[in-house]
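Minutes, project check-in

Agenda point 3 was the complex the collaborators sent over. CS summarized: two entities, 623 residues total, and the question is how they sit relative to each other. Sequences were read into the notes so everyone works from the same version.
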Amino acid sequence: MTPAAQAALLEVRRIGKRFGGLTALADVSLTIRSGEIYGLIGPNGAGKTTLFNVLTGLYVPDSGEFDFAGRNLSGQKAYRVVEAGIARTFQNIRLFGNMTALENVMVGRHVRTRAGAFGAILRTRSTRDEEQSIRRRARELLDYVAIGKQANAVSKNLSYGDQRRLEIARALATDPKLLALDEPAAGMNATERQELRRLLQKIRNDGVTLLLIEHDVKLVMGLCDRVAVLDYGKKIAEGEPAAVQKDPEVVRAYLGGALP
Amino acid sequence: MAKLAMQIERLRSHRYAPWIGLACIVLALLALPFALASVGTAWVRITNLAILFALLSLGLNIVVGFAGLLDLGYIAFYAVGAYCYALLASPHFGLHLPFWVILPIGAMVACLFGVLLGAPTLKLRGDYLAIVTLGFGEIVRIFLNNLSQPVNITNGPQGITLIDPFRIGPLDFSKTDVLGGAALSGPIKYYYLLLIVLVVVIVINLRLQKSRLGRAWIAIREDETAAQAMGINTRNVKLLAFAMGASFGGVAGGIFAATQGFISPESFVFVESIMVLSMVVLGGMGNIWGVILGAVLLSFVPELLRYTVEPAQKAMFGRMIVEPEVIRMLLFGLALVLMMLYRPAGLWPSKTRKREFEETEQE
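CS then shared the predicted structure for the full assembly.
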């Protein structure tokens, strides 16, 4: 099965976003296919996180649109995007710091559960069953990312690597089709990176498409099926990692112009 | 000594220990009004007021303690509930509906006001929200003060008098009944009623806290952006916090109007909002038991002072040197300073709140 034969999961068409005089994104188009690991790289300030924020509903794009799983989601509220199946993690970890690891993941189940105020007050049978299934699923996910032992630890007291894993578990709790990870390996040592890579491959093998912003070239090259390179808000290259790495535009963006 | 400790430990770990403990508390609460009445009926009234404030604090705790939305105009919902009751059960309009009809109406109208306040202010955070809610509280009070013209709805600053007391069958809550040899005065009947309402409200709060909704509230308080990114519809969930908190205020207000028999805008001034907020903060935001403790302490201590400061000074100096009111404020200030120094998270904080303050201490 070649990637080209697979269906497009996310189709981004000419997305633009400006902040005052600064053009953060200019006509960025890209297509992510179901089941692949897609890398988004580029120098600092290239617009990667801005694109993430647009795709996850935190920013409304100024122009362009994007379809996800056949639905136009551009400019939709964040909770709608999550409902449609895009989950994310943050570059600077944003856990609910004073809640336990388990509670964090349980919050992630919010969008897939229904119990309202009256169900909670009357503690109806369906509410109790739902609550139990939330708890069960949250425990499973903690085991899945290998921090099951930390379930009752307060999340801000977890080690850095475990916090990253917890954020992934919390995002997975929303049952995403596409998991968007903003620099998941930042601040990790070599061993942790190896483990992270295995975890991400496992997630992909379990049927979740991955979009990942990453600086670590080795990780991106080894993990991603395709990468896109952003520079000053524009996409300057896209393709298989090995090819993109040799692209003269990309070399220029990272290293500056050729020596005279 | 060691043997005694072991005995106690054995008793504590006994299967029935929690039930016996609960039974003792229930008995004590049931006997309390009679003990208080033997000292003076005023103390039963003070206790009733303390329970009312506990109800208010529990309502505000949903908004401030769980969802983290600072509301400085909470007393407005209390006012709405009280006026609902007063208008529907007094000679003012000649309506005399029974209380079990009015209380749900009061809760619903207060809920509506909660949404009315919540909807336009949802995008505001922190200080800005506090200012708007403060303004809202004042607007409601000023409306009540002035809605006597051109059509007399609230009777203005004179307030509404002769409000009906509660009636359950033959039991009239304004009169004393003799039941099985024991004299049940009006305040004692209200005490039992308030106790039942308080238990119901506590159960509702406990259940909400440990639900999908409660987690969403706490998540919003912790990090609103992350909560959005987890698929929480923050607008609706925050609105729900406002609405639920307001309904509790509305119910409390209705009972307040009935117990007092008279209400005026005077009862719903800004200081009252601050008072309820102080109860929530003093007891420990987010923790239901802490909030109740705060409400009870802040209702009783001023009254205790009123009854002790004057005689104590007379006995010591032969005359009164410092007014009880002044001493009360001095002690209030002292208590605030001590709290900030030693228990910044409240007397009995919730676990998550306590962690928050631990963090700031480390930094």
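Noted in discussion: Chain A touches chain B through 42 residues (CB under 8 Å).
Follow-up: revisit at the next meeting once the mutant set is ready.
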